[in-house]
Specification:
Layout lengths: L3 E5 L19 H17 L3 E5 L15 E3 L4 E3 L10 H10 L5 E3 L11 E4 L2 E6 L5 H13 L3 E6 L10 E5 L2 E4 L13 E4 L11 E3 L2 E5 L3 H9 L3 E5 L2 H4 L10 E2 L1
Parallel strand pairs: 1-2, 4-5, 7-8, 10-11, 13-14
Antiparallel strand pairs: 1-15, 3-4, 6-7, 9-10, 12-13
The structure holds citrulline (CIR).
């Protein structure tokens, strides 16, 4: 069960955030409406939502997931690999200090973004991507093992972040797309396979009794429902334009 969630409102500079997609420039008003709906959906899942104010100096800072890795007992503050995002951690640190006494840090030359970290019960998977390097991944692995978790480092081939292509729903069930459909590291889990035309739906989040999924991906929604999970659908177009998904918009703990 999650009790708390941290989110951060998109600021006016959001439209200038990083992207690799060709879906166009986000519309700020629409992004703010979609963010508000995201907060409401989280509240409907029974969590307390801490909303941090926007900061125009950091266009991508609404994607708070990348700044930390959280467990019930400790936090790890990341070291984002995107230079324009790196200092977002300084704003997240005081927010996390109000919840955690035990805080670890990923240090340069290690880089790591939370979007590359997937927790499956007591086992963490750490993606090596354009944003998370081996030094960052090994630092996190060591921290997690000292805290009695298991950790596996996974080399990404095409996905932007690890969680762009995989989500854990609980009950040993993962949602997988693309390179993770047949990836040996995830063969021990029950797989819900996302068809290629719905790949964006692989980034979904289980929050207590619900799985929140992006709107407009009927095949994936039906498979998740059939596996016994209740879903909430949210419009995500303005976040998808900047390579962001449902997991990216919050830290859940
Ligand atoms: C970036 O390029 O960093 C942002 N535009 C998107 C970050 C998405 N975060 C995530 O997948 N955890």
């Amino acid at each position: 069960m999650f009790k708390n969630v941290i989110v951060k409102t998109p600021g006016e500079s959001y439209i200038n955030g990083l992207t690799t997609s060709d879906l166009g420039t986000p519309i700020l008003e629409k992004a703010l409406d979609q963010h508000q709906a995201y907060v409401e959906a989280l509240k409907a899942c029974g969590v307390e939502v801490t909303i941090l104010p926007s900061n125009v100096d950091f266009p991508d800072s609404t994607f708070v997931e990348d700044t930390a890795v959280l467990t019930p007992k400790f936090a790890v503050i990341s070291n984002p690999g995107a230079p324009s995002r790196n200092k977002e951690i300084h704003e997240m640190e005081p927010a996390l200090q109000s919840f955690y006494e035990n805080i670890h840090y990923i240090q340069a030359p290690g880089t790591l973004e939370g979007g590359d970290i997937l927790q499956i019960d007591d086992h963490f998977y750490i993606g090596l991507s354009a944003r998370t390097n081996l030094a960052g991944a090994e630092q996190l692995k060591l921290i997690l093992e000292l805290e009695n978790y298991k950790a596996t480092i996974v080399q990404l081939e095409k996905f932007f972040h690890l969680k762009t292509g995989i989500a854990y729903l609980g009950d040993q069930t993962v949602v997988v797309a693309g390179e993770f459909v047949d990836h040996p590291d995830f063969n021990e889990y029950t797989k819900i396979i996302v068809p290629p035309e719905e790949v964006y739906a692989a980034n979904c989040i289980r929050v207590n009794d619900y799985v929140i999924i992006p709107a407009g991906y009927p095949v994936t929604k039906q498979k998740i429902n059939k596996a016994g999970f209740q879903t909430i659908e949210l419009e995500m177009s303005e976040f998808q334009k900047l390579d962001g998904g449902l997991s990216c918009l919050s830290l859940r703990f």
